[in-house]
């Protein structure tokens, strides 16, 4: 696929949720943008709807950041140099379908106060249509009108309004190609392999950052991990605390939330199995990533990728291979 085809695939995918998805920031429901929740309904928020559209479009960008801050911090995209006047991009030729527009919100603790995202759906001459999910249903909107309204929306943050902060691009323009010689073909192949390896490494760092952001949110400010993309001892200890908090909330386990995975925590563990959607799945996926296994997404849903990663981990560690991340598998993941 060339760049235009990839961008169209993302836009066409996003169109499926227009006017359909209900708004939710619940960690499980917001992942149900294109697969129905257990109640049969579809849910998303501004960032999850775009992230999951990129993922479903299957263009090699399965994880561009789990929330607006994650999208801004992601190394998979690049900041687009655009001309802006009074909060409105003035040259549509600088934009591409699939570009994401990051806007300020009401939280000064976030980078550049970023709190909302929209995506470029179409460009026709001087008119640009955005698609996005606010507190209502996902909808289309005129870019100029929408950007102006956010520019005029005053806030008490350090930015002072909800205006456009930046534009990021995940699908870069195609390079202008000439007929390659045998020598240049070999060079290009090596370069492509290097870029692919770099992209994989960058995506892994982004996923760990997103895990760290999720941990900070789940723990309600009682702990604050640095978003450094490293799955070190502190990140893993805090994931134990998330597990203990989850077990206390859902199973009345009565555990001390101290980050120590001892016999009581192991005994209280319940299993993650294929088809489960919960915060416990987030914790399982996080630890799989931390141990170098790819569950194919950090989305709180135990699908085929997560099931395969659990089974591979169990096989590699001499455990019973059943795809169920129960007390023994959790204990192994954390030790």
Task: Report on this structure.
This protein has 335 residues and is α+β, with helices and mostly antiparallel strands. The chain folds into 2 domains: 3-169, Alpha-Beta Complex (endopeptidase fold (from Nostoc punctiforme)); 202-333, Muramoyl-pentapeptide Carboxypeptidase, domain 1, CATH 1.10.101.10. 40% of the residues lie in helices and 13% in strands. It is built from 10 helices and 10 strands. It has helices at residues 3-15, 46-57, 68-73, 143-151, 182-218, 233-251, 263-268, 279-290, 304-316, 327-333, and strands at 22-23, 43-44, 78-79, 84-85, 88-89, 100-104, 114-124, 127-132, 139-142, 164-169. The strands form 3 sheets. A 6-stranded antiparallel sheet has the order 3-10-6-7-8-9, with helices on both faces. Strands 1-2 form a two-stranded parallel sheet. Helix 1 (3-15) crosses helix 2 (46-57) and helix 6 (233-251) packs antiparallel against helix 8. The longest helix is centred in the middle third of the chain and has 37 residues, at 182-218.
């Amino acid at each position: 696929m060339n760049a235009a085809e990839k961008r169209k695939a993302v836009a066409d995918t996003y169109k499926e949720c227009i006017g359909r998805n209900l708004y939710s920031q619940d960690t499980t429901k917001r992942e149900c943008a294109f697969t129905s929740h257990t109640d049969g309904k579809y849910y998303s928020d501004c960032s999850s709807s775009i992230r999951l559209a990129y993922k479903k479009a299957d263009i090699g960008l399965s994880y561009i950041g789990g929330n607006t801050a994650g999208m801004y911090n992601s190394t998979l995209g690049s900041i687009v140099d655009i001309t802006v006047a009074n909060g409105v991009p003035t040259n549509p030729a600088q934009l591409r379908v699939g570009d994401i527009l990051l806007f300020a919100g009401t939280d000064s603790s976030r980078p550049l106060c970023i709190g909302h995202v929209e995506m470029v759906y179409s460009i026709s001459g001087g008119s640009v249509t955005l698609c996005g999910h606010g507190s209502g249903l996902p909808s289309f909107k005129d870019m100029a009108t929408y950007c102006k309204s956010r520019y005029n929306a005053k806030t008490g943050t350090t930015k002072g309004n909800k205006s456009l902060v930046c534009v990021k691009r995940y699908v870069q323009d195609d390079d202008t190609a000439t007929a390659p010689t045998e020598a240049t073909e070999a060079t290009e192949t090596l370069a492509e392999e290097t870029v692919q390896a770099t992209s994989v490494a960058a995506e892994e760092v982004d996923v760990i950052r997103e895990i760290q952001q999720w941990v900070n949110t789940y723990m309600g400010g009682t702990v604050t991990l640095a978003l450094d993309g490293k799955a070190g001892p502190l990140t893993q200890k805090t994931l134990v605390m998330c597990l203990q908090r989850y077990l206390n909330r859902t199973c009345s386990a009565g555990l001390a939330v101290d980050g120590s995975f001892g016999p009581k925590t192991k005994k209280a563990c319940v299993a993650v199995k294929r088809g489960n959607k919960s915060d416990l799945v987030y914790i399982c996926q996080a630890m799989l990533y931390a141990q170098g296994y790819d569950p194919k997404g950090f989305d709180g849903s135990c699908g085929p990728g997560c099931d395969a990663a659990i089974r591979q981990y169990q096989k590699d560690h001499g455990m019973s291979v059943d795809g169920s991340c129960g007390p023994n598998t959790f204990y192994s993941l954390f030790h």
